[in-house]
Amino acid sequence: MSDIITSLNGAIFEIILNRPDKRNAIRVQMLQDIASAVLQAEQTNGVRVILVRGEGTCFSAGLDLMTMGGMPEALGENWRELGNEATRLWQRSIQRLQDSSLPTIALMHSYAIGAGLELALGCDLRIAADNTVMSLEETRIGIIPDAGGTTRLTHLIGAARAKELIFTGRRIDAPTALHIGIVNQVVSPKELLEAGQKLAEEIMLSAPRAVAAAKRVINGLHNTAEGFHLEMVEQFPLFHSEDLAEGVQARIERRPPNWKGK
Q1: Could you report the average pLDDT of every consecutive run of 10 residues in the chain (262 residues)?
Q2: Topology (CATH level 3) of domain 4-190
Q3: Which of 138, 226, 234, 242 is catalytic?
């Protein structure tokens, strides 16, 4: 089974996360498939907007911890020694959503945790069902959000609020996310897809080249490259830490971690 499904609905191109049995846990293959799907959308005549949503009970429960996001499969068993390349791989894949000339909208429901929220932050706009819980809780397993999440969240809601959410790994509900500016709309779960389609249709009332130009200007106002580099530099030693091994094991065993600061 493919990690994603693509669907064309008129001028709307849908990218659907398709690991429902794993709560759409994210791994390298999924992100690479998403990047390929963005290219497919750009090359399909008439497409104006990309929607990204999750199949099944949630948008995404985050990193696939059981396979460490598929890094051993993608880069080999010694992937930690290639930590910078691992970070760049995740960043590049999500960056395709941000760099696309097409506007991108994430539709989140139930859970958008860790790497799942990082994926949504790579989109231009976000709509959440009112039952959605969100977090960047990588610090609770001993690493940082390094797929662009630290950089994008800071640009979106400011340094103080980003620090609070990332330092604590706190989970927030959809109304809170709307209040602080993470999401653009909150709707009922039944209305989520319709809300995404309506927003896409409203965007399509504007000229496509003008929308693409506006996206480039707005994106260009923020120096994400420097932030991504800092994420990569700071993540590398964390990949080798005892705390990461303990954090992952504690999460799998559903117990509090015993941090050593090593």
Answers
A1: 93 98 95 97 98 98 86 81 84 96 98 98 98 97 96 97 98 98 98 98 98 97 92 93 93 93 93
A2: 2-enoyl-CoA Hydratase; Chain A, domain 1 (3.90.226)
A3: 138
